[in-house]
Write a sequence for this structure.
């Protein structure tokens, strides 16, 4: 069901303030920035080799990321694991007793489908399941490595 790490989500107050440390100082490559209106967040995709980091800036004071920052401050927000079929993964986890925050996949950044598992299931770690979109040939992309 789980194919590997998709990305690590890091909550930041401001992409403009955070990005120079990640790109200029650490040398990570910025793939792009995308708004995800359904989550009221702006996402910067960064690469360190084949490891993907997503910086998450709230676009509204009532967004989940803004609430996280208000409560805990900036920092690691979630781990995202790639799965082949998000809907099936939700069913398997729910049947095993995992408290799902999503009962069906919803749109995520870069045309992915995502679902979240409540942090109480994994000792305080918010888990995101990510299903990558199919490529131009109808095959599912791997989500591994910069494109």
């Amino acid at each position: 069901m789980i194919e590997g790490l998709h990305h690590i989500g890091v909550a930041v107050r401001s992409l403009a303030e955070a990005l120079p440390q990640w790109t200029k100082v650490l040398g990570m490559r910025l793939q792009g920035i995308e708004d995800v209106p359904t989550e009221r967040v702006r996402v910067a995709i960064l690469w360190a080799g084949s490891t993907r980091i997503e910086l998450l800036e709230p676009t509204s004071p009532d967004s989940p990321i803004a609430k996280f920052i208000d409560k805990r401050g900036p920092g690691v927000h979630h781990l995202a694991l790639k799965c082949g079929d998000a809907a099936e993964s939700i069913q398997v986890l729910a049947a095993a007793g995992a408290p799902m925050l999503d009962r069906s996949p919803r749109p995520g950044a870069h045309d992915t489908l995502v679902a979240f598992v409540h942090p109480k299931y994994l000792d305080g770690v918010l888990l995101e399941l990510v299903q990558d979109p199919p490529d131009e040939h109808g095959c599912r992309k791997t989500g591994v490595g910069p494109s």
